[in-house]
Amino acid sequence: MKDLSLFAASFLLLILASCGSNNTPKKVISTPYKKSAVMEPFRFHKAIEVKPGLTLDVLSWGRGTEANGVYMILRSDSIHMKYKSISGELDGKIIDAWNMDMDSDGNPELFIHAEGEGEGSHLNMYVYEYSDGGSAQDLNFPNLKSSQKEGYKGQDSIYIKEGILYRTFPIYDEGDSTNVARSQKRTLIYKLRSNSFQVSTEDQKTE
Fold first, then answer.
1. Are 197 and 190 in contact (CB under 8 A)?
2. pTM for this one?
3. DSSP output for the chain
4. N-to-C CA span, the chain
C-alpha cells in the first residue's frame, strides 16, 4: 500500500507539472507565402478552378520581345481523366485571365486580357467557351469600330459588373501633339448573346 500511495503521489505531481507547462505560450514561426516564379520561356501562368476537379491553366511563352508570343490553355478534368490543350498567337502580354458564364448558358467562358507595350498600348481579348465535353469554341471579341476609335490611344480599363463587361479608356484630341487627354472617357459595354458579343457605347465627361 505504501508503494501504491507513493506511485499515486508521483503520478499526480507529473500531471500537475505537465498542466503547468501547457500554460507557457509557444512561439510559432510561420513561413510567408512566396509566389513561385515562372521559368523561361514561360512568362505568365494562372490556374483557374472552374469547379472541383476541373482546372484551366493559362500560360504564355516566348523568347525575346514580350510584344509577341504564344498563349496556351491546358484543360485538366481529373475526375473523368480527360486532358486537352489549345494555343494561339499572342499580341502583347497577358495582364490577367478569368472565367465566367457571361450568357448564363451553363458553359463557362475563359477570358484572356492582353495589352501591347509602350505608349498607345492596345487591348486584345481572347475568349473561349468550353462545353461539358471539353471542346472549346473561339468567340470573336469585336474590334473597335471607326467611331469608337476616335481619340483612342490605349490605356484601357476592364471590369465586370453583374455579368456585363465594361471597357473604359480616355479620349484624346487627335489634333493635339502633346497627347493631353480631353475631359472625357469612353465606355464600351459588352453583353454576350448566343456566343456573339453585343456592344454599346457611352461617352462621359470626367471630373
1. yes
2. 0.76
3. -HHHHHHHHHHHHHHHHHHHHHTS------PPP-PPPPPTTEEEEEEEEEETTEEEEEEEE-SS-TTEEEEEEEEEETTTTEEEEEEEEEESEEEEEEEE-TT-SS--EEEEEEE--STTPPEEEEEEEE-TTS-EEEE-PPPPPHHHHTTB----EEEEETTEEEEEEEEE-TT-TT-PEEEEEEEEEEEEETTEEEEEEEEEE--
4. 92
C-alpha cell at 41: 520561356
Q: What does each of the 207 residues of the chain score in pLDDT, given as a tens digit?
A: 444 344 444 444 444 444 444 444 333 333 443 444 788 899 999 999 999 999 999 999 998 877 789 999 999 999 999 999 999 999 999 999 999 999 999 999 999 999 987 665 789 999 999 998 899 999 999 999 999 988 888 889 999 998 899 999 998 887 666 666 676 899 999 999 999 999 999 988 766
